[in-house]
Amino acid sequence: MSEKEHAFSGPSSAAIPVKGFDVAGIHCGVKPTGALDLALIASSIACRAAAVFTKNAFPAASVLYNRNLLHMNPEGTHSVVINSGNANACTGAEGNANARRMAEGAEKSLGIPDNTSFVMSTGVIGVQLPISEIEEGIPKVAARFRPDGWQEASEAIMTTDVFPKWASKQVVVGGQTVTITGISKGAGMIHPNMATMLATLVTDAVIAQPLLQKALTVAVNRSFNRISVDGDSSTNDTVLMLANGAAGNQEITEKGADYDAFVEALTAASMELAKLIVRNGEGVTKFVTIQVEGAGDDGEAHQIANSVVKSSLVKTAFYGHDANWGRILGAVGYSGATVDPTNAQLFIAAGQPEAGSKELQLVDAGTPTGYQEEDASAIFAESEISVRLSLGLGEGAATVWTCDLGHNYVSINAEYRT
Description:
Blueprint: E1 21-26, E2 38-53, H1 61-72, E3 77-86, H2 92-110, E4 117-124, H3 131-143, H4 150-156, E5 165-173, E6 176-185, E7 198-203, H5 209-222, E8 238-243, H6 257-279, E9 287-295, H7 298-310, H8 312-319, H9 325-333, E10 345-350, E11 360-364, E12 367-368, H10 373-380, E13 384-390, E14 396-403, H11 407-414
Parallel strand pairs: 3-4, 7-8, 9-13
Antiparallel strand pairs: 1-2, 2-3, 2-8, 5-6, 6-7, 9-14, 10-11, 10-13, 11-12
Helix pairs in contact: 1-2, 2-3, 5-6, 7-9
């Protein structure tokens, strides 16, 4: 599927620059196509850092490096350097050494202390980084630094992505306007925890590092851990956040109104980036919201929703405009969560839940309602669809975002290395 044929497009407004941060992207030679493949984001002021990483048992060299750096220096980092076109995963000692060389290259070019730059890589697994090209490219990308280089940086971290992804939010905290801006990439191997994706968010807020970590974890669990394209989790997943304190707000040192406002803005930005990843999914023609309510608890609701979005049969039904609700209930039934078929109700609607479209009920008490098949098919033919499952067992609820699965997904991944 070409960019023109893709069902969705990227952000509708420009990213908002964040005080103290500069960003840029260039082509350094990792990608043979000549596309942008190296991004650098840095703050002139030392940052407090937080991160959430993949739970894959084969973590990439960048993940190993970043976990160690976050533990060693959570309050004095400055930058992150990101390459696309090569994952630097399953590359052994040489890959680990190359991740360190990337970080050292950024530190040297920026004139910042040792052990103050994170690294990220994305692309093909099992191939050594062309580290010489990256080391030569880092000074060049640093020379292009500017506060508004977010689109360029976002393009530089893309792999099979069709469009670049960024998001910005502003909120008043401690009497000052605080800005949060982030970029993300991801189109395939998308599923919690987290999804095959990279995201970097930066803010000028003054916030204690432990609370920054708590805030990021909350935001990730409500956003990046609520999306699925194909049920595969990657070796490289990282969500990184840097906070340089340039906004000058009264420091957030405890949970309260300011912390809540910051978490809400961070979650909103993360949700925006996460939804863009789904809309940019490989071969995607549908953006689907799955809402589960009335489960025993929130954990079981999320378990059920994840079972539905992992089902290839459900996802191909979306692709084929086939309102085959039996596939949805089948996925609910094998989720392992507690369900009572006699209480189950299933509704569908065109668009997203907040759009307020009229719902069509397909199932009541576990059996069909007598709806008109052409009405259901018309909803499944829309590019955005909402599915709501009510279980009648408790107060548990969860929302996840997913997509369809069609011919182009197979083509993209069958030809990925060729």
